[in-house]
Amino acid sequence: MNPTVLSAQAVSRSFGKHQALRKVSLEVRRGERVALLGASGSGKSTLIRCLCGLESTDADGGRIEAFGQLLQAKGRISPEIRALRRRIGVIFQQFNLVGRLSVMHNVMTGLAAEAPLWRALSGRYAEADQARALDALDAIGLAPQAFQRASTLSGGQQQRAAIARVLLQGAELVLADEPVASLDPQSTHRVMEQLAALNREAGMTLVVSLHHVALAQRYCERVVALRDGALVFDGPSSALTPGFLQHLYGTAAADLLHEPGTDASVNDSRHLALAA
Ligand SMILES: Nc1ncnc2c1ncn2[C@@H]1O[C@H](COP(=O)(O)OP(=O)(O)OP(=O)(O)O)[C@@H](O)[C@H]1O
Q1: What's the gap in Å between 166 CA and the centre of ligand 1?
Q2: Domain ranges of the chain
Q3: What pLDDT does 205 receive?
Q4: What distance in Å separates the CA atoms of residue 224 and residue 29, rounded to the nearest whole number?
């Protein structure tokens, strides 16, 4: 069995009186592709932010380890977080690129953790590093856009540039927070394919929060589902039938069953044929 790369034990996080996460526990093993599923407001982003140490848990809010090392416990982020973050690539819904900088420069920030600070700030990277960045862009089909400003890219292209950045970073674990939420259906599938390729070809472990069951089923073998901040399902994505989702989510299930840009639901063979 592959080693555990991520472990969350009884993770809780409140904002004022609102409990966004309620004792969520999960373990992710190397090489897994895990979809984090849940309706809007169920706690997916909060969990991802806690898992990468961008958000602290409540003071009595459990413990998170990455690669067998403490990432945070009892609301305190580990002093070793910088070293851990080098191994964790994070992809956000809102691309997080600097629009006025070139695509290449944005991708090179994936090296910021290993480059001296002056170099990261000035954007003057060694030729060998530039070659690596071009390779990463080439791998995701964006080499022709390497020297364009990031702001001139489409949403799908920007998200693929963010993928190139984690590729260059050499992340072992990728946490992607609704990376396709603002994309059209075609870009959605392209981005999801490329995330799956990172997993298949570069061996990265992938945890990706998604809003739609069809995407989770197509691209991830395991689903962790949240409802109102609590973990309500952790198992094979194939087990998520519409009936079971109805049971888990009640009326909110309809929101999760429809893939963006289609009228199809998860059990609809037309949709599956289209996606194939
Ligand atoms: N910084 C914050 N301050 C106050 N409340 C917050 C904060 N961050 C999240 N919340 C609340 O915590 C709950 C979970 O939010 P979260 O963003 O994690 O959900 P989500 O499942 O990612 O939702 P979506 O799919 O809409 O992005 C929501 O009720 C949200 O309003």
Answers
A1: 25
A2: 4-275
A3: 97
A4: 13
Question: Which is the closest atom of ligand 1 to the Cα of 229?
Answer: 14
Say which CATH topology domain 4-275 has. Answer: Rossmann fold (3.40.50)
Inform me whether the pLDDT recorded for 125 exceeds 80: no
- Nearest partner of 143 among 107, 172, 94, judged by Cα: 107
Tell me the average pLDDT across 214-223: 94
Range ranked top by mean pLDDT from 93-102, 185-194, 256-265 = 185-194
Q: What is the mean pLDDT of residues 110-130?
A: 68
Is residue 264 very low, low, confident or very high in pLDDT (cuts 50, 70, 90)?
very low
- Angle between helix axes 127-139 and 155-169 (nearest 10 degrees) is 130
Question: Which is it for strands 222-227 and 33-37: parallel, antiparallel or unpaired?
Answer: parallel
Amino acid (one-letter) located at 19:
Q
How many angstroms separate the Cα of 155 from the Cα of each of 35, 181, 236?
21, 10, 30
- Name the 3-class secondary structure at 68: coil
| Any atom of ligand 1 within 6 Å of the Cβ of 118 | no
